[in-house]
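user: can you give me the structure for this one chain? tokens are fine.
assistant: on it. calling the predictor now.
[tool input]
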Amino acid sequence: MSFLRRLYKAALLTALMTVFSAMVVIPVAAALPAGSTLVFDRGLPSANLNEAAGANRSNISLGDTEFIEFPGDDFTIGNLGEVWTVDRVRLWNTAGPTNDPDYRLGDDFKNIALHGSLVGNSLQLLSSGNLEIGSDINSNTNITHTKITYADLSLFQIGPDEYANLWQTDYDNLNWQVMGGQLYQFGQNGVPVADTVWYNHASNRNLSGSPQTGADDKFRSFKASDPNFLAILDSSSFWDKSTDINVQIWARKMSTDGGTVNQTCTIKKTGKKSKNVCVNISKNILRIKINQTSNITNDIRGYATSGKNTINGTGGTIKTGNATVNITVNNSVNRSRIIIGR
């Protein structure tokens, strides 16, 4: 049975939410660092929920009943040349019977983990922690599990009068540095106490009724035994529509104006010889003092022309005398290449 078919079977046969209160539970997560804001919002759907929506149902829960794979997705924040620090990733899963008020997430899962990486690279463990039977409290104080409802207080329905708990998990203090404008992948998985499947929440972007940033009607599959990317999948092959994993991300754009950094570069001596070129940068571009000590060229380039100065490439802000030119500095590498004409 394929991964997609297993997901479908699980989604149809397993109860995925619970009635636990007439009130929305407010998560108690760690405080965010100053300047950290919600920058990627593909949260839970607010419309077309459950079987009452008929063919327009927006919500589903995805998991692998054979424990071979787990679903995830991808995101992009910011623009090329920027560096961001991701502080919090919020995801949702479904677990536990609706008729047991004493149910705790630790009754079925002993470990919860979040993995992520730049697309094309191996997944890295970003955060993980353990649960004990009878508890929702993670051993990692940066991971918070909260039982919730949808915004309209409704629950996830799998069939007539069949529901299960909906859980929100916040991964805080991740300090995950990502490059703006580039695609990153992530996946959340739970290790069962026995044989309970971990299900991640997903929804159809056109029917969700809520912001669905970056939704592309696809999700990703990762290998459970050594979390690495396996495939990009479309739930329309086993459900009646496409979906994306729901996720919210809080992050800060980092300033790379960290003072003067000595670099070497190639100088094109088209005029009076210059001993130094100072790159005066504000906000999120690297400030570099260029010393003509060698002809070594590295990875970053820039492009702009102003007055008698020419910068070849793309990137940041260079100011020499009264002439100012723009240059984009690529923060994805630790080396720089800047070609200057004067």
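assistant: here you go. The chain has two domains: 3-253, 261-341. The chain has a mean pLDDT of 75.
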